[in-house]
Amino acid sequence: MITVTTDTFRLAQAFTISRGSRTEARVLTARITRDGVTGRGECVPYPRYGETTDSVAAQIAQLPPDIDRAALQSALPPGAARNAVDCALWDWEAKRSARRAWDIAGLAAPGPLGITYTLSLDTPAAMEAQARAHAHRPLLKIKLGTPDDMPRLEAVRRGAPQSRIIVDANEGWTAALYADLAPHLVRLGVALVEQPLPAGQDDMLAEIARPLPVCADESCHDRASLAGLRGKYDLVNLKLDKTGGLTEALATRDAARAMGFGLMVGCMVGSSLAIAPAVLLAQGAPYVDLDAPLLLAEDRAAALRIEGSTLYPPEPSLWG
Question: What is the rounded CA–CA span in Å between residue 62 and residue 4?
Fold first, then answer.
């Protein structure tokens, strides 16, 4: 049996990117119960990809109740619905066999991960205050993507002079604006820029100088998208809600590495249940953007342990 519920978690503060703001994380939880054992998976439907909680729940509802992970890969396209069910199946397999998910996947036991902390888009003064409050963190990610981003970036650098910085434009810049900004990003010590141009309008990245590494986010979904990124991007950001679950994410990670891409492992704004499977995916990745639990005012029971900027693997009671 597969059931789906909608769950809401309050955020510690409003979270803003170039496409809008939110004050809560609204997620779908898939539960698969077989042989007296229940596995759980979580997804975050994303309007950017045409998803709503209703549309994703409807996709899950049409699945056969006895579907397995192999059949699931062709039954649903990459996206939030497949992610929730795929991760629930991993969790169910682990609990039924009394093994950890990484053992079933043939992976080494995961270790702790150093993670980013994301500063949401705001006024320069507010972003400087955010940066100052988190200046002890080694890696900050800042949300930009407007025509007036330089004062914000300079303010964050003032607030956190020692932290490494990732800039995420969320498709918000034009090619001309990015070309103008790039030298200043380098001057201010930005480590990489994520998705500066809209997906589908990013061919210019292959033609202009890339003075700092560029990471694909909205342009990268699963293995099928990788070939079109060559020459334009240096890294890819893998998210379970884009790949459609851990099964495809692990395959995409291996394919991306084989093609020479660097890796970031990211997430939508969800609970610890959504992040737990990504801990397996993120082992060995140079950039781990799995800070969603830090943005919440409330979380799941048996939530992931985070100490400072160190994220620890999940306990079996949470997932896997």
Answer: 12
Beta strands in the chain (DSSP E): 2-17, 20-34, 37-43, 113-114, 117-119, 139-143, 164-168, 190-194, 214-216, 235-238, 262-265, 287-288, 306-307, 310-311
Q: Which two tokens stand for residue 270?
A: 């969800």
Catalytic site includes residue 239: yes
57-97 residue pLDDT tens: 999 999 999 999 999 999 999 999 999 999 999 999 999 99
95, 143, 232, 242: which is the annotated catalytic residue? 143
Share of the chain above pLDDT 70, in %: 99
In sequence order, the β-bridge partners of residue 214 are 193
Per-residue pLDDT band for 180 (boundaries 50, 70, 90) equals confident
Record the pTM: 0.95
Asked if 120 and 143 touch (Cβ cutoff 8 Å), the reply is yes
Q: Distance of CA 5 to CAs 24, 46, 54, Å?
A: 16, 16, 11
* Active-site residue (options: 95, 141, 239, 242): 239
Neighbouring CB atoms inside 10 A of 235's CB total 22
Is 143 a catalytic site residue? yes
> Is the sign of the CA dihedral 64, 69, 70, 72 positive or negative?
positive
Q: Is the pLDDT of residue 14 over 80?
A: no
What does the alpha-carbon distance between residue 108 and residue 110 come to, in Å, rounded to a whole number? 6
Place of tokens 């699945």: 63
Q: Is 7 exposed, middle or buried (0-12, 13-18, 19+ CB in 10 A)?
A: middle
